[in-house]
Amino acid sequence: MNTAPAKMHSTMAPPRLEIRNIRRFFEGRAVVDDVSLKIRAGQVTCLLGPSGCGKSTTLRMIAGVEMQDSGEIYVDGKLICDTVFRVPPERREIGLMFQDFALFPHLSVADNVGFGLKGSKDEKRARVEELLNRVSLKRFIDGYPHQLSGGEQQRVALARAIAPRPRIMLMDEPFSGLDNRLRDGIRDETLSLLKEEDTAVLLVTHEPEEAMRMADEIALMRGGRIVQQGAPYNVYTHPVDKAAVAFFSDVN
Ligand code: ADP
Ligand code: MG
Asked: Where is the ABC transporter domain (predicted)?
């Protein structure tokens, strides 16, 4: 038997985020049932599936605000959570963005984006300006959330989530509250901003079209399980079963 250690190569580095065999039961029913996923830095993985299939519950366990009943979560190959050991949410270096993840109404745009940043006042200000420039909202730096449109607030929320340079970015249907006219622009802007940052993105959506547009990898979920996984084109052109065909063709 070859017992020599495997030679490490950069492409063999552990994934930024790995969840292994995660399960979560509610009232005796497995709402997340043996889910495993690997996400590399610089990649967007879409957890795609109909309402109620367990997407948000999966995200909450990764964020650490809910505990799995079995399975493990690793960041850069290091265990951060199993059923006995648990790194608390605030030490997971995870950025969150939800549809209704409101800005702090009493804080200026600058203070919203700078919230939770470490460093000197000048360093924080520089990072806030950099991000507001990137989302084309520098002119609102001293404004307040109520002065912004829904789309603008969403871009500030994105800037705020990215500002602390999270290792992992979790996004739960972040665009579903926006009207169609705005949505495509914000999706593209979000994607280009995320790709510049050294982060691994897990985007939850029930819209195949959004997954096709944004994902490097799609994990198709149904009834708590991942039923198919692969590059968007492959998943779309080779649906795993009739239910997957129906799900993809339901898009308007
Ligand atoms: P999705 O985000 O895909 O719409 P969720 O993860 O929110 O799905 O929910 C998956 C299933 O788990 C649903 O049937 C939901 O009703 C159930 N569920 C979620 N949270 C709880 C809870 N705290 N208690 C009981 N059932 C829950
Ligand atoms: Mg949900």
From this structure: 17-248
For 48-103, what is each residue's pLDDT tens digit?
999 999 999 999 999 999 999 999 999 999 999 999 999 999 899 999 998 776 89
The residue behind tokens 């999966």 is 58
Distance CA 190, CA 154 (A): 10
Rounded to 5 degrees, what angle do the CA atoms 228, 216, 241 make?
20
Q: State the ligand closest to the CA atom of 60.
A: 1
Å from CA of 126 to ligand 2 middle: 35
How far does residue 173's CA lie from ligand 1's centre (Å)?
15
91 Cα: distance to centroid of ligand 2 (angstroms):
24
For the entire predicted model, the pTM comes to 0.91
